[in-house]
Amino acid sequence: MMYGMSAHVVADTDIRFFGPHEKLSISLISFFYCFRLIIIASPRMRVYLLRMRFRLVRKEALSILVKESKMGDWFLFYMLGVNVDSIIFR
Question: pTM (2 decimals)?
Answer without folding.
Answer: 0.64
